[in-house]
Amino acid sequence: MRLGLVIDLDTCVGCHACAVACKEWNTSGTTGALTDYHPYGAQPSGVWFNRIRHFELGDYPHNKTINFPMSCMHCENAECVTVCPTGASYKRAEDGIVLVDQNKCMGCNYCSWACPYGARELDRASGTMKKCTLCVDRIYDMEIPEEERQPACVLTCPAHARMFGDFDDPESPVSRAVRERGGYELMPELNYQPSNKYLPPRPTRPIPTEHLRKRGIRQVKDWIHQAVTR
Amino acid sequence: MHPALAVIFLTLFSGGGFGLMALTALVNDFQIDGGLNPLQTMIALIISMAFVSIGLLSSTAHLANPKNAWRAFTRWRTSWLAREGVFAVMYYPFAFLYLVWVFFTGGTHDAIGLILANLAAIIGLITIFCQGMIYAVLRTMRQWNTPLVPANFYAMGLAIGATWLAAIQQITTGQPDPALIGIAAALLVATGVLKGIYYFWISRPGGPTIRTATGFNRFSVRILDQGHTFGTFLTEEFGHRLPPAKAKSIKILMYLIAIILPLALLAIALWGQVAALAVLAALLVLTGFGVERWLFFIEAQHVVNLYHGRQQC
């Protein structure tokens, strides 16, 4: 098995719900707590397994906003595991999930240097490195209904922009999605062979809206837009 | 990259300590200018072990969870950091036994003495290589991902060792030794050249860009929002950078302190018979390479910065 996520950049609305759900689940999970620093202070910060960046593609008027969620890619060629001197970082042979044994980690930061995707964050409270577990404490839990045995980020996504599954199975939904939509890896030139794949936005034509605008008001609005400088 | 003092001290002092050990063994092996006398050998060994100890102890300050530090020796099959730890600790018994041997028998260059000295020296040199490889294996930072990194670590460790050995020799005899000063000067020049090649190398653009990082190869890509309001671990650890103009002036300063001034001082010490200047040169070399190590860290640009607004790393 090679478990991982597929992120649909076409439908992601950038709401950060995956990051919040992740934090909520994992702060009481196997690698919790995910410490917050000064949560009510002037400059709150903390440990997150999931971070969403926002990019602009192209130049106006042919531009587009892309919301870009990133978490651990559970790479096939996980250098973070290779460089770990203590053996705290390991990649599970049975499903490919990369984990950090919190009892072995000495907090040297070396694995975070080796990770190109910024998936690893040091928890200053525990002094150990923490990262996405692919909700390993949830996906194998026989006590919860089968359809809920998915990572918290996938379950919560309101836009269904996240998919979870086995990339070794060519007919799994994630494999099909990657095949049909041209899913790709980030920074393939570094040869980390990340499991997580990203689906590019679908090509779409602009939806015509000109005819919806009332003629007279539009002229006034255009005149105001020209008169008012930003 | 965050220039953590603990890691700067680790690579600087332990590199210098191993370099001093290697030079001590070399001078006694070939009896360069008659070799070192027992007192000089012992001082060199004590300084070497003190440097390595300063380096290793300060490295533990970099650990967020040092109670697990003993585990760092376990993964030597895959991790250069673990290999460094294993070899650094292996160096101690041989260096210490050589010290004991010289103390009790005065045998700086008899068979047993030389075996111990050379074993300690070779293990030290292997440790410097492991130290360089810790950085050179990281494909995430192109400023580090080059064979020039271990080469430079060697050059600097040996240059520190050679200048300190020259200083020890002069302090104990009051007479400057042309051979030792010559070795130190040659190594300083070689280090300057190697470092220059490194700076030329990292000044070329290369490595992943914002396009391969996001996968949008046919568009211009700009960051709109990093997704966090204040700093994260990633921005604190990797977000540091140095404006090019400032970097250039610090590099000139580094060359001045680490190479040009020590060379001048060594020359004056030799021609003017002023032993104290060699000590000053040795201190300057150590300080200058400390500045170099700071530059080495702060100039390394991790590819994760692409997700925080850099267009290229």
Automatic annotation (TrEMBL), chain B:
Keyword list, A-Z? Membrane, Transmembrane, Transmembrane helix
Question: What lineage does UniProt assign to this protein's organism?
Answer: Bacteria, Pseudomonadati, Pseudomonadota, Acidithiobacillia, Acidithiobacillales
Output this protein's name.
Answer: Dimethyl sulfoxide reductase
The transmembrane segments are: 43-64, 85-105, 111-136, 148-167, 179-201, 252-271, 277-296
Instruction: List, alphabetically, the GO terms of the cellular component aspect.
Output: dimethyl sulfoxide reductase complex; plasma membrane
Q: Which GO terms describe its molecular function?
A: dimethyl sulfoxide reductase activity
User: What Pfam families does the record point to?
Assistant: DmsC (PF04976)
The protein's matches in PANTHER family, at most eight in alphabetical order, are given as: ANAEROBIC DIMETHYL SULFOXIDE REDUCTASE CHAIN YNFH
InterPro entries listed in its UniProt record = DmsC
